[in-house]
Amino acid sequence: MDHEEVIAATREWVEKAVIGLNLCPFAKSVYVKNQVRIVVSDARHLDGFLEDLDRELDHLAEVDPEVTDTTLLVHPTLFPDFLLFNDVLEIADEAITEHELEGVLQIASFHPDFQFEGTEPDDITNYTNRSPYPTLHLIREASIDRAVEAFPEAEDIYERNMETLQKLGIAGWKALGLSESGAGKKHGEE
Q1: Within-domain flag for 117
Q2: Which domain does 113 fall in, by range?
């Protein structure tokens, strides 16, 4: 897939969903300062993707946060299955330990078919973590700490996001006009 298209779809999702719906109240400040790095992986297999992850962990650990505060590592085709991608998150978390970055960086995951345990696939609350393509979000813990200080009720974000999406509904989500990857489309959708 064309990197520019993948980056454009990812930016659109960040702007319309993550920032637009205020799913992450911390995202806007780093996004408008151009401190969000979006990297598209072309890896043909898991090992190659993990090498890309290693490079991005090293990059984020070394670069000034004023230049890059957070990284979105996106792979448009390697992980169409959410459960497989969820297993990759466990390996990615182990990479944090291997790079001796515990307490420095953490990883969150987003996927077109993201599903919380105990929910149905079409449950609107799953959309809090649905992105156009499988994505690992590499986050500085210091940034999270600063954001939590600025938003003292950060623990309520999860519940507020669920309420926001329940009010929005599937039709409201579709009305955002977000680009959809093939992985996120259900049978019969175009």
Answers
A1: yes
A2: 3-184
